[in-house]
Specification:
There is one protein chain. The protein contains 3 helices and 5 strands. With 101 residues, the chain is α+β, with helices and mostly antiparallel strands. The chain has a domain of 33 residues. It is elongated. The protein starts with a strand and ends with a strand.
């Protein structure tokens, strides 16, 4: 039996929830405070789990066209100033390796 569902917020989580619920046959209403949906200049990190989900939804070609594969990341602890560098091996499996400095 289809439900009438209200999703509050048109961010990534709200849109993903609305899409999945609509695919399951429910009636969806999305409420958003912003008067228009626009680019805000922020980046979005797509982890492997969300990337698999987006590919399942047919968005793989868009990920390939617009996505950027990071080559490394530097993380610093505020208290100790200790730095960890995460370097990625860019091969067929995109395996990660951690190095501490």
């Amino acid at each position: 039996m289809p439900l009438n569902i209200v999703v509050v917020g048109c961010g990534l989580g709200g849109l993903a929830a609305a899409y999945c619920l609509a695919q399951a046959g429910h009636n969806i209403t999305i409420l958003e405070a912003a008067s228009a949906i626009s680019e805000v200049g922020a980046g979005v990190q797509a982890s492997p789990n969300i990337s698999r989900l987006l590919r399942r939804w047919g968005l793989g070609p868009h990920l390939e066209e617009f996505g950027v594969k990071i080559q490394g990341m530097s993380l610093k602890r505020c208290e100790s100033r200790r730095q960890s560098v995460l370097a990625f091996l860019l091969n067929a499996n995109l395996q990660g390796r951690t190095m501490k400095s």
